[in-house]
């Protein structure tokens, strides 16, 4: 950062510091070292809720909604890139910055609503795990218990790097699973490619809802909060921007490719066979058996399991980051339990509460997921507006302040998403 | 006592009790132990005006009252040592020097001290947060009913260090005097929690020695991060202040290019010492030894040796052992500080020293070095080359570091810090 005369400013952010003009690592290694937050955040967007949405979309509309994924990809890249950029420039999480710039009430509002919505999402991750494991005849309480222990152990005992590698590893399993199931489903690749690049509009209510749902499950308030916090927790900084952008790009690309494979797998089997009326991803996995073989069915279920596990790690983590930033408590996976009790307490509460919630007999799961979706839909516009205001603040962002193109794109995406969110919420209440 | 949140937004009344605006912010002059309030920023329906404290008759939770008949509606100009409480401190991050951590300001507490209203403490507790959210009353009732105390936590303003990136309104040079007085391990842990921007500001305000001491307490990744954020000149100065073995470890993680540039900026002999150490393979005794030790010729008397010690002491990492070398620099003996002090002043060193001392080779494995240190209960072990020339010493902490698992290394300083505090 320099002032008008080109002199380093007194706060002296990394002027021609050693890192800047010499660089410690070989370039390739430097890029590799930065990768992670964007990829994990991307992978996590395809959590239990995501896979359910894509499966239903594929079963109901065949290949028709593929173009939406391409558009979502662009929007997701824009929002995630800006989130990462704010994290790099400020070294702070989203709600902490909201508190500094817009006051404690907005920060508390954002944090509390996000917590409520995320609690719903966490329950649905557990539901995904249980549904997937019940295909292998594992009882629900056991699967909930195992998943809770696995995730708490991983985050509670791991260093940042270990947590990140575990997340990436699980994400790779998800990716592999859905690529395999899509290939086993023997889809009409030509038609798929066609639908991907040629938008297919329709003003049919259910179709519109599916479009909005697909976008809404990918671009989420917690995803926005997570990328920024994870970048900070990884201790990346301004000069990592190029590598981080690549990281986000890779993450977004993989996410949407996987989403497309899920959609294609369901389109090629369920939709082609006329079984358009499924109600969950597990249904899809089950129905896949007779149509594409048991291997496809099992692989699809493994995908749901891994994706839900990843979501179970990321959503509570994002929640803990969000609340601790807003209220000024120690946060980060590199801390020990005793040093950051609020952070780990929140994580444990989230996972424990959601696990217990799952065990309530006759739980109206659909309503819970639905409620979480509505809250997320209401919150997303507010979060995005804050994000854009922060990204354009020169004093806060320094040299990483969003340029004109970046800002225009960001606001464009924000406006579109605001409209879609309102639409989603409106239709949710109408139905 | 008054909380800032209770005053903000309250009406400002003139002498007749007519409201003329609302309290928008409070101005304090920093520098004193408890900064006195020097003025109010009032938002009227048209603009923000400044009111010097001399014109204010009273300020409390009901609002402010003006003393003078007329008010100067000139535009507010901030003096260099003044900060705005709401704009610059509320909701911002500060360093809690006493608790050695970074906290967020929930509210600010003002009180009359020495006849003036002053900023006395920062509220970082749950009660302050609830007050800001407007639910302190219900929260207290709830807490009473479940038989819990409302967690209140205040930090005395004296124990607070505001971060520069937070104080947006002025180019205030925060002195960070409190930080400079911390134990290096505590300073290291605070620096570790800062954002890069704040880190740069704080490092700029500390002297080279304080930064060097703190650097030695950081884990290697943070060390490199901090060093890389510095200008090469400053980095060179700080490396000179560090003990050569720690400096060498750190420099080893830089690129060849960065290393050469920094060496060029360091004092010649300091740079050579570090370069020397870099030649040794990573797992060898040479890599962890320090070249700052005390060596004396065998021909001195005990009194002369003690005199020599006084001259050399400032630089050496440990003076508990005095090594004795011959004319070619070969290690011939060792004596402890105790041996030296209890010896007759005119006794020759050659008589009182322990001959054929325990030593390790520069290429010895670090595990073996640690074994030797443990077996003979040494505070440091001398390191010699093939010819028996004394090259350096490995102190017990560095020897243990080399063999302890990383997790333990990270935990130890924090454990000690907690016990010490």
Summarize, please.
The complex is a heterodimer of chains A (431) and B (421). Chain A is mainly alpha-helical and 431 residues long. Helix content of chain A is 77%, strand content 0%.
Q: Can you give keywords for this protein?
A:
heterodimer; A: 431 residues; mainly alpha; Amino acid/polyamine transporter I; globular; disordered N terminus; B: 421 residues; alpha+beta; SH3 type barrels; MgtE N-terminal fold; CBS-domain; 3 domains; seven-stranded mixed beta sheet; four-stranded antiparallel beta sheet; 21 strands
What report would you give on this structure?
The complex is a heterodimer of chains A (431) and B (421). Chain A has helices at residues 18-21, 27-34, 37-45, 48-61, 66-90, 94-102, 104-134, 140-157, 160-184, 189-197, 205-218, 221-233, 241-271, 281-292, 294-327, 341-359, 365-391, 394-397, 404-430. Chain A has 431 residues and is mostly helical. Chain A has a single domain, classed as Amino acid/polyamine transporter I. In chain A, helix 5 runs parallel beside helix 11, helix 5 crosses helix 12 and helix 15 (294-327) crosses helix 16. The longest helix of chain A has 34 residues, at 294-327. Residues 1-16 and 20-26 of chain A have low confidence and may be disordered. In chain B, helix 10 (232-241) packs across helix 12 (256-265). Chain B is elongated. Chain B is α+β, with helices and mostly antiparallel strands and 421 residues long. In chain B, the strands form 5 sheets. In chain B, strands 2, 3, 4, 5, 6, 7 and 8 form a 7-stranded mixed beta sheet that branches. In chain B, strand 20 (380-384) and strand 21 (390-395) form a beta hairpin. Mean pLDDT of chain B is 80; it is low at 406-421. Chain B has 20 helices and 21 strands. Chain B folds into 3 domains: 1-174, Roll (SH3 type barrels), CATH 2.30.30.240; 181-279, Alpha Horseshoe (MgtE N-terminal fold); 295-403, CBS-domain. The longest helix of chain B is centred in the last third of the chain and has 15 residues, at 406-420. Classes of the chains: A mainly alpha (431), B alpha+beta (421). At the A-B interface, helix 6 and helix 7 of A face strand 10, helix 7, helix 9 and helix 12 of B.
């Amino acid at each position: 950062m320099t002032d008008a005369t080109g002199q380093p400013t007194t706060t002296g952010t990394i002027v021609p510091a050693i890192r800047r003009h010499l660089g410690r690592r070989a370039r390739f290694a430097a890029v590799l070292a930065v990768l992670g937050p964007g990829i994990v955040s991307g992978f996590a967007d395809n959590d239990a809720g995501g896979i359910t949405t894509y499966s239903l979309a594929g079963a109901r509309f065949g290949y028709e909604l593929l173009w939406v994924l391409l558009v979502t990809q662009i929007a997701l890249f824009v929002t995630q890139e800006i989130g990462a950029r704010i994290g790099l420039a400020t070294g702070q999480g989203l709600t902490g910055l909201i508190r500094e710039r817009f006051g404690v009430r907005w920060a508390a509002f954002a944090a509390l609503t996000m917590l409520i919505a995320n609690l719903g999402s966490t329950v649905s991750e557990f539901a995904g795990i249980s549904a997937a494991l019940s295909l292998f005849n594992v009882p629900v309480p056991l699967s909930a218990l195992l998943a809770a222990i696995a995730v708490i152990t991983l985050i509670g005992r791991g260093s940042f790097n270990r947590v990140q590698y575990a997340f990436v590893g699980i994400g790779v399993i998800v990716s592999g699973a859905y690529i395999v199931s899509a290939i086993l489903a023997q889809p009409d690749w030509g038609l798929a490619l066609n639908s991907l690049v040629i938008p297919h509009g329709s003003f049919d209510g259910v179709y519109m809802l599916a479009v909005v749902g697909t976008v809404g499950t990918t671009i989420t308030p917690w995803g926005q909060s997570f990328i920024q916090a994870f970048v900070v927790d990884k201790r990346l900084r301004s000069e990592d921007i190029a590598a981080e952008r690549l990281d986000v790009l890779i993450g977004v690309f993989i996410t949407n490719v996987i989403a497309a494979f899920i959609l294609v797998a369901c389109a090629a089997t369920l939709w082609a066979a006329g079984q358009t009326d499924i109600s969950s991803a597990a249904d899809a996995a089950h129905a896949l058996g007779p149509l594409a073989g048991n291997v496809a069915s099992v692989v699809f279920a493994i995908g749901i399991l891994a994706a839900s596990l990843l979501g179970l790690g990321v959503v509570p983590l994002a929640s803990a980051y969000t609340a601790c930033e807003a209220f000024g408590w120690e946060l980060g996976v590199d801390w020990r339990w005793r040093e950051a009790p609020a952070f780990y307490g929140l994580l444990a509460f989230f996972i424990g509460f959601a696990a217990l919630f799952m065990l309530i007999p006759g739980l109206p799961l659909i309503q819970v997921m639905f409620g979480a979706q509505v809250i997320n839909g209401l919150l997303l516009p507010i979060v995005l507006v804050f994000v854009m205001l922060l990204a354009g603040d020169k004093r806060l962002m320094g040299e990483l302040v969003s340029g004109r193109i970046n800002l225009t794109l960001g606001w464009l995406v924000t406006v579109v998403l605001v409209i879609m969110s309102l639409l989603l919420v409106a239709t949710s209440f109408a139905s | 006592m008054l909380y800032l949140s209770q005053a903000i937004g309250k009406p400002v009344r003139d002498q007749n009790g007519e409201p003329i605006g609302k309290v928008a912010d409070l101005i304090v002059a920093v520098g004193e132990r408890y900064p006195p309030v020097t003025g109010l920023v009032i938002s009227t329906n048209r603009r923000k005006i400044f009111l010097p404290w001399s014109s204010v008759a009273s300020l409390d939770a009901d609002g402010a009252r003006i003393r003078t008949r007329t008010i100067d509606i000139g535009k507010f100009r901030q003096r260099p040592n003044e900060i705005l409480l709401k704009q610059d401190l509320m909701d911002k991050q500060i360093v809690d020097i006493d608790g050695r951590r970074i906290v967020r300001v929930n509210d600010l507490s003002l009180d009359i001290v020495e006849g003036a209203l002053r900023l006395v403490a920062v509220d970082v507790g749950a009660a302050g947060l609830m007050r800001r959210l407007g639910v302190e009353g219900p929260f207290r009732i709830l807490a009473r009913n479940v038989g819990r105390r409302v967690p209140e936590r205040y930090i005395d303003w004296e124990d607070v260090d505001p971060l520069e990136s937070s104080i947006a309104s002025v180019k205030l040079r925060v002195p960070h005097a409190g930080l400079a007085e911390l134990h290096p391990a505590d300073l290291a842990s605070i620096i570790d929690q800062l954002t890069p921007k704040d880190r740069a500001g704080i490092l700029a305000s500390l002297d080279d020695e304080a930064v060097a001491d703190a650097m030695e307490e950081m884990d290697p990744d943070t060390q490199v991060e901090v060093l890389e954020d510095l200008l090469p000149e400053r980095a060179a100065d700080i490396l000179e202040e560090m003990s050569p073995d720690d400096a060498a470890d750190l420099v080893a993680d830089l690129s060849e290019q960065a290393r050469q540039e920094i060496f060029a900026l360091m004092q010649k002999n300091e740079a050579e010492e570090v370069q020397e150490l870099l030649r040794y393979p990573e797992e060898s005794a040479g890599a962890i030894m320090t070249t700052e030790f005390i060596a004396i010729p065998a021909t001195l008397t005990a009194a002369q040796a003690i005199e020599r010690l006084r001259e050399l002491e400032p630089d050496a990492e440990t003076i508990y052992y005095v090594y004795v070398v011959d004319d070619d620099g070969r290690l011939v003996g060792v004596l402890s500080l105790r041996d030296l002090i209890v010896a007759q002043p005119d006794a020759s060193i050659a008589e009182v020293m322990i001959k054929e001392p325990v030593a390790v080779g520069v290429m010895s494995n670090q595990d073996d070095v640690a074994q030797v240190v443990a077996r003979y209960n040494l505070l440091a072990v001398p390191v010699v080359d093939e010819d028996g020339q004394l090259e350096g010493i490995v102190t017990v902490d560095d020897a243990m570091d080399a063999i302890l698992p990383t997790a333990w290394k990270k935990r130890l300083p924090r454990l000690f810090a907690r016990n010490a505090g």
